[in-house]
Amino acid sequence: MRIGIVCYPTFGGSGVVATELGIALAEKGHTVHFITYDRPVRLRDVEGRVLYHEVRVSDYPLFDYPPYELVLTSKLVDVAGHEGLDLIHVHYAIPHASAAWMAQRILRTRGIRVPFITTLHGTDITLVGRDPSFEPVITFSIEHSDAVTAVSESLRRDTCAHFPVKRDIRVIPNFVCIDQYPSGPDAAIRQRYAADGRKLLVHISNFRPVKRVDDVVQVFRRVRERMPARLLLIGDGPERQRLENLCRQLGTGPDILFLGKITRPEEVLAGCDLFVLTSESESFGLAALEAMACGVPVVSTDTGGTPEVVEHGVSGLLSPVGDVERMAGHAVTILGDPATQQRYRQGALRQAARFDVRTVLPQYEALYAEVLGKAAS
Ligand code: GMT
Fold it and tell me: What's this model's pTM, rounded to 2 decimal places?
């Protein structure tokens, strides 16, 4: 199959999943064309079957707002027509789904039929999508996609609750390529950050308000009162500078390290003891799944799709949003005793294995076949 993938090329979960999906499809022999404004951060080639087409919006003084959606549409028409794409798979509804719909209509005038699938990832529905100014376009693009998937049951429910859509939305969860993750704790990472045997807590996000990273700091400070520990904060975003200032005021010093963006988070996760995720809302929590794939249990808020990923009492412990006391208590429960930590570690590995690419990829391939079958009939 020749598949076009549209995604955000950044460190966000939707771009990461789209990239890993494209690579996994290429490993199975499909040819995959990535169409986006920058090379996705984790993209790599597989025997010439992964190609990248840049969407470049020219700067013209009349455009106060660069018309990205239109240029993306034109690029989709160009790539679909010239590369003979069988289907287009867009990740994140805004503005990818409406661009794909427009491209589909233009292609049809040229006698080319290309179905498109939209995968909803979370903030396109839960935050951005609920802005009334987006609603009509998102509703329309969901209704007019040839198929729609959501990354969790919770996101599927949210979509049906907040948008007047009647169509079927299939849940296909996010995944990890388990074989790419280290099988045991990494001694070199521990030597770098926890040579004195202290516990290593870690958080990864885009530092947006929805992640409530202040709560991560508050949870850590409570844990730190009970045991030697260090917190690694990975990623970057609008809240980072304020949080760095807060940590300076609190005098947390080397106990809290900001590491910035990291392309391969497992290179740090593999030495960590606990992942902390304090989000207000989270459609899935891919970062938590990646931590679990490294055998790192998770202390998280009980919100959105997180309970579908982190099994309470097995791979981590869940608490209500904002309850930093309870989250700190959970962290101490997991870290306070080696046998308990080991049990959660094994639970995290087992749970992550349920989301292995070998289980999830066939679900996408089956959907592609269904959509192509319908398009041909
Ligand atoms: O977390 C973010 O704000 C980034 C966003 C994205 O589009 O990359 O993440 C969303 O999609 C991820 C991949 O499906 C999910 O794992 C995240 O839970 C989801 N984020 C939210 O719902 C806040």
Answer: 0.95
